[in-house]
Amino acid sequence: MGKTMRINTPVHASVIDQLDVRDRVLLSGTILTGRDAALPRLLKMEEKGELSPLGIDLQGAVIFHSAVSDAGLGPTSSNKEGIENSIIPLAKLGVRIHLGKGELSANTIRGLAEHASLYAVIPPVSALIRSCVERTERLLFPELGMEAIYKIEVKDLPILIAASKGFSVYD
Question: What is the 3-state secondary structure (H, E, C) of the chain?
Answer without folding.
Answer: CCCEEEEECCCCHHHHHCCCCCCEEEEEEEEEECCCCHHHHHHHHHHCCCCHHHCCCCCCCEEECEEEECCEEEECECCCHHHHHHHHHHHHCCCCEEEEECCCCHHHHHHHHHCCCEEEECCCCHHHHHHHEEEEEEEECHHHHHHCEEEEEEEEEEEEEEEECCEECCC
